[in-house]
Design brief:
By secondary structure, this protein is of the alpha+beta class. Helices cover about 40% and strands about 25% of the residues. α4 packs across α5. The longest helix is centred in the N-terminal third of the chain and has 18 residues. The protein is globular, with a radius of gyration of 19 Å.
C-alpha cells in the first residue's frame, strides 16, 4: 500500500510538471490591422488585414511554417528558438492578395510589419531581431 501511494504521488507530480512546461507550446497571437497601419491603403481593397504570429519559445518552428497556410488578407509570421542548433528561425507567408505588395520590397511597407512585431509583440523577447525579421519578410 505504501509503495502504491508513492508511485501514485510520483506519477501525479510528473504529470503536473509536464502540464506546467509552457516552453514547448505553440503560442498564437492575432492582430486585426487597418491597411493604413501597414501603409498599404492604396494597394488593397479591404478594411482589415490579419497578422497572425506563431511563436515557439523552445523548439523548431519549421514544421509549423510548412503546415499553416494564409487565408485571404492574412500575413503569417513564424518565430522559433531552436535550442538544439542554438538558432532563431523566422519565416513569413502572405496571401496572394498581399504578396504582390511585399514582392516589391518597398522599405517603408516592409518596416511597418516589422515595427508591429518589434514594439507590440516581441518587445520583451531578447532573441527577437528586427533585422532578421526584415530579411525574412523581404524573402517573400
Amino acid at each position: 500500500m505504501k509503495y502504491s501511494l508513492i508511485l501514485a504521488f510520483l506519477f501525479v507530480s510528473f504529470f503536473i510538471s509536464a502540464q506546467n512546461n509552457n516552453n514547448n507550446l505553440l503560442q498564437v497571437t492575432r492582430y486585426k490591422l487597418h491597411p493604413t497601419e501597414l501603409n498599404i491603403q492604396n494597394d488593397v481593397e479591404t478594411e482589415k488585414i490579419n497578422l497572425k504570429i506563431y511563436y515557439l519559445k523552445d523548439g523548431d518552428i519549421t514544421a509549423d511554417y510548412r503546415y499553416f497556410k494564409p487565408k485571404k488578407n492574412e500575413i503569417l509570421f513564424f518565430f522559433g528558438n531552436d535550442i538544439k542548433t542554438n538558432t532563431t528561425q523566422m519565416y513569413f507567408k502572405a496571401d496572394d492578395s498581399l504578396m504582390h505588395i511585399y514582392k516589391k520590397k518597398d522599405f517603408n511597407k516592409l518596416m511597418k510589419v516589422i515595427e508591429i512585431l518589434e514594439y507590440n509583440v516581441f518587445s520583451q523577447e531578447a532573441n527577437f531581431s528586427s533585422i532578421d525579421a526584415y530579411t525574412a519578410l523581404a524573402q517573400l
